[in-house]
Design a protein that fits this description.
By secondary structure, this protein is an alpha/beta fold. 42% of the residues lie in helices and 16% in strands. It is built from 9 helices and 9 strands. The chain has helices spanning 21-33, 47-50, 54-71, 89-95, 117-129, 149-157, 175-186, 208-218, 220-235, and strands at residues 3-8, 36-41, 44-45, 76-79, 82-84, 106-110, 133-136, 161-165, 192-194. It has a 6-stranded parallel sheet. A 3-stranded parallel sheet has the order 1-2-4. β7 (133-136), α6 (149-157) and β8 form a beta-alpha-beta unit. The protein starts with a strand and ends in a 10-residue tail after the last helix. 45% of the residues are buried.
Length: 245
């Protein structure tokens, strides 16, 4: 089984991910060794936090693409952004200064981990109303949503794509996050897992352990959908599979 990862911070020098080119290539190699063959680079986007990093993103992506061509046959690279939500987000998207996922209507969006439930709800609705399909990044990590299964069900039924981080299954962000992640998984409310890789140590591009856990507990079909197939559908602009329970 090979994997597709649509939330990564490989590109060096653009956000809090890879610090230099060597680290970027080390993350790429680790992802490849772990079985990932489809990678979408999603550098953080927020002008106040990261400034205008577009030129740096394009430079780093070009170098990453060259390395893939030379050393990693069968790997497909894509580009997007992880958008930190603000009221100006729809304007940024419409102006093209913030990327959607591979030019589709899908937008990877995150909020502060301490954001109130209402702020998250309003932000997701604003994106939906503007014609975009929000992918709620690491949905299990927002403190205001811990134990709030009906709120996440509402997002999910309204068409929001729920993305979880692979490390959350294994207490990488603490026990409360792990419990929330496993509960959402058991209820069929997670649409895909991504590594959210930032480095090769504390935030590695690990997908295999997540796949094995889901495969053992829920079966190969569910595991393949959450670790590969739904991510590929997103990149193609297709509807993700949500018919699990």
């Amino acid at each position: 089984m090979t994997f597709a990862d649509i939330h990564t911070h490989l590109l060096f020098g653009v956000d809090d991910g890879a610090k230099n080119e060597d680290e970027m290539l080390a993350i790429l190699d680790a992802a490849y060794q772990n079985g990932t063959r489809v990678l979408c680079c999603t550098p953080h986007f927020h002008p106040s936090y990261f400034g205008d990093n577009d030129d740096k993103v394009n430079t780093a992506f070009g170098r990453l693409s060259n390395d893939v061509k030379k050393k990693y046959p069968g790997v497909s690279l894509y580009l997007g952004n992880e958008l930190r939500y603000e009221l100006e987000c729809v304007t940024w998207l419409r102006q093209g200064v913030c990327r959607t996922i591979n030019g589709t209507r899908y937008v990877l969006v995150d909020f502060s981990e301490t954001a109130p439930e209402k702020v998250i709800e309003n932000g997701l609705h604003a994106l939906l109303n503007a014609g975009y399909i929000p992918i709620l990044a690491h949905a299990e990590r927002y403190r205001s949503l811990h134990g709030k299964i009906p709120a996440i069900q509402s997002f999910w039924h309204n068409g929001v794509v729920i993305q979880a981080d692979t490390q959350s299954l294994f207490r990488g962000f603490g026990l409360l996050v792990q419990c929330q992640c496993r509960k959402l998984l058991s209820l069929g409310l997670i649409d895909l897992f991504s590594s959210d890789a930032h480095n090769c140590t504390s935030r590695s591009p690990e997908m295999l352990g997540c796949f094995n856990y889901i495969n053992k507990k829920y079966g190969a079909d569910y595991a393949a959908a959450l670790c590969c197939n739904n991510a590929i559908r997103l990149l193609r602009g297709e509807v993700v599979r949500k018919d699990f329970s």
